[in-house]
Amino acid sequence: MGTAIGALIGERVPPQWQAPLEAVFPIVFLVVIVLVCTNRAAALVAVLGAVLGVVGVLTLPPGWSVVVAGLLASLAGPLLERWTGHGSSA
Q1: Residue 56 and residue 65: Cα distance in Å, rounded?
Q2: How many whole angstroms separate alpha carbon 4 and alpha carbon 2?
Q3: Distance of CA 26 to the CA centre of its chain
Q4: First to last CA, the chain
Q5: Has this prediction a pTM greater than 0.70?
Q6: Burial of 37 (0-12, 13-18, 19+ CB in 10 A)
């Protein structure tokens, strides 16, 4: 729904509003990350994903950096939880 609305009215946005509107998505993304990082393991996974994403942009074909960074950071998550003591004890 939001994509359709954006496609319909996106061309009508005044030029002076374009830069502030382009900054909204990264700001919202950072807020969500801060709210989700409730322990050290989650924060380490977020930082690892960011670092791997930047390295991926510099070394991988276009489009693969996010996929590889997300996959590797997600796989490292359980190990980091165990290492920091924030994992389940089951």
Answers
A1: 4
A2: 5
A3: 9
A4: 41
A5: no
A6: middle
